[in-house]
Amino acid sequence: MKQGDLVVRKSYGGDILFRIAVLNEQAAVLRGADYRLLADAPVSDLTPVRNPDELGGSRRARIQASESLHRMRAEREQAQSAYAKESVPRRQFFELPGKVLHLDGDANYLRKSMAVYNQLHVPAEGVHCHESQMPMLVARLLPQVRPDIVVITGHDGVLKSRSDLLALSSYKNSVNFVNAVHVARGYERSRDSLVVVAGACQSHFEALLHAGSNFASSPGRIMIHALDPVYVAVRAAFTPFRETIDISDVISHTISGMHGVGGVETVGKYRVGVPNIKLPSSVTPSAEFA
């Protein structure tokens, strides 16, 4: 086995597909291939996986991701059609969805996320960096990018040796996400001016909300799918600025559901304008800061 290989853990019945992030003679640091989970395991507990599609859990996660993307497209088309009926024909107006800054601790997930933003025509800029770098990069990038929505995500997990779920020290990366949210709120205090989506698998939901997130994971300390933060960001980007995002609806349509994502009332970021004009390309290629 080597860094980058796909593996499962024998002791957990091979339920989750991981990619080896760090490997030494005795142990490995693992990052979920479909879920935003960070874990570690002895090398003796790992089994290599050559064909991920043979794993039921992995195959199911990919099907769910495809369904989530289909739902995002359908909702966008429905919103466009509703506006066209209520105001002017679609060909006569142009759209200004909310702009996203997406910081991700996983390069593969960032590429997938940027592909979704691109397909749905959401203006977005993506940055790959280690979770510990996120507070510093949020401080640097917010004044440069000036987004409407910032996504702060990567990998997280509850430490095996800790049982106090209310202590930040019980989590692998929640403190980094919380610090990044604090920085974002230092830049823009209003939850309606800057929408913050933060967290990963098993993250400290309460601490993230208290720090100023609009939406966060994970109320039930469960695994969240890689695209759940993207789905929430897209809904914020395409909810009209005169309306509040339907919290129950958006969360119930994430792959993880109510135990995986929670949030507070937030207004949308979508606007339209007339006459129709040709806007420049809206998606910026992801940057690498790792």
From TrEMBL:
InterPro entries: Peptidase_U57 (IPR008764). This is Sporulation peptidase YabG. It comes from Cohnella nanjingensis.
